[in-house]
Structures are given as C-alpha cells and as structure tokens.
C-alpha cells in the first residue's frame, strides 16, 4: 500500500505558492505640474517591481487632470508584490518624471491615492484575487 504523504505534500505546497490575478483600473490624476510653457501631457507606466512591465497608458495632452481608460491585468501576481506606477510628462526631447507611487498589493479591491514629488496626485484602484 502506497503512502499518501507525497500527494499531501504536493497539495500543501501548491496552496502556499498560489498565484493570483491583478487588475488595475480607474487611473486618474489631479493637478499634474508640468513645465512653465504648457500644461502636462501625462502618462503612466505600470510595473510589478522586479517581475513585469504591464504597459503604459496613452498620453493625455494639455491636461493637468487626466483620466485614463486603460486597464491592466497580470495573472502571475502574488500578495505583497510591489505595484509601481511611474507618472511622466511627455516632452519633445526628454519626458519628465513627475512622481512614483509604490505599494505592496493585498488581496481584495483597494482604492489609493499618491502625492507625486513634482506636484499633483495620482488616484487608482486595483483588485487582487485568486484564480
């Protein structure tokens, strides 16, 4: 008669290493501060720090209060991964980094805001759930 211990260990290991899906949406900003010659042309880079670049939003021209309709998904996320959002002002020669928001993600749906180093606030919502 074979022992069920190896199967039990396999099941327990798979439970502790469970993957989850991440959905980031409802990205918007208020009061983006651009250079002195024009309003901000903002966009956001979405990153799971150390794991994946999820994409970049469209550029919202001449808008200090942009709203982005893009949603980002990642199916290999884990609780406590670091979600990194980099907010830029697009310029002709060099895009200015307006600020970085970082947060360890948790299971559930969460709304957050983040004050940007160069002025303005980024707002976003994410959901982290099991597969």
UniProtKB/TrEMBL annotation:
GO function term, MF aspect, one: wide pore channel activity
Protein name per UniProt: C2 domain-containing protein
The keyword Ribosomal protein is assigned to this record: no
Taxonomic placement: Eukaryota, Metazoa, Chordata, Craniata, Vertebrata
Entry-linked SMART domains: C2
Signal peptide positions (record): 1-20
SUPFAM superfamilies hit by this protein: C2 domain (Calcium/lipid-binding domain, CaLB)
GO (cellular component) term, any one: membrane
GO BP: any one term: defense response to virus
């Amino acid at each position: 008669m074979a022992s069920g211990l190896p199967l039990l260990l396999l099941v327990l290991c798979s439970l502790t290493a469970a993957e989850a899906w991440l959905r980031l949406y409802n990205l918007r900003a208020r009061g983006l501060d651009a250079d002195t010659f024009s309003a901000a042309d903002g966009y956001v880079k979405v990153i799971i720090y150390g794991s994946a670049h999820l994409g970049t939003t469209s550029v919202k021209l001449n808008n200090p209060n942009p709203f982005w309709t893009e949603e980002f998904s990642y199916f290999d996320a884990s609780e406590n991964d670091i979600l990194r959002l980099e907010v830029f002002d697009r310029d002709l020669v060099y895009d200015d980094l307006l600020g970085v928001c970082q947060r360890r993600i948790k299971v559930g749906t969460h709304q957050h805001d983040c004050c940007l180093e160069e002025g303005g606030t980024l707002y976003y919502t994410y959901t982290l759930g099991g597969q």
